[in-house]
Fold:
Amino acid sequence: MSDGSSWVEIVLLAMLAAFIGLRLVSVLGKRTGQERPIGDSSPRAVPEVVPAVTRDASRAPRSIAALPAGTDAALAPALQAVANVDANFEPQRFVDGAKAAYAVILEAFWAGDTGAMEGLVSDEVQENFDSAIQARDGSKLKNRLIGLDAAAITAAELVGQMAEVTVRFVARVTMAGAAPMLTTDIWTFSRHVTSRDPAWLLIATDDEPGPDALPA
Structure:
């Protein structure tokens, strides 16, 4: 009797194993040879293209105020395009802020204090200023800003969701106590138009040939 019972148990266990195997196949599926090996990383995602920011169609376009003195009238459409997507942008207010930033950044650079320009310049520009200060062994320059004769917008554009506005500064400075000199700098400022931070950052600097001594 015991032998018969053993055979019955073996048959039942075999049927149970077959049933479980069929269930696993139906749930997990079969290997096809096309599966990714365990540990393989997923394919790299295609870099996302940042779309250009567009004006909210539900919001009526606002006209910018009169262009700042010295601004080419041909720039009006470009400045209007920035204003259409940046509710805080006003050309004259921007120029006033750029003039203030120009003075602070120059004085900080001459003093060898790049910490004073944080929040006003991009990381790359700050690194460039740091390198220039290190090249002069961190010494302070005895330069002084006498006055800012002109500051005019010379270019404006939208790059994706970034607005970039370039300003031409004409300033009078003294260098190491010498006679006043006339310098011309071309600085480009940038801002993410959807950011809650209203600050514009200096992202590029250039200068025109000079300086030239001012007439007596």
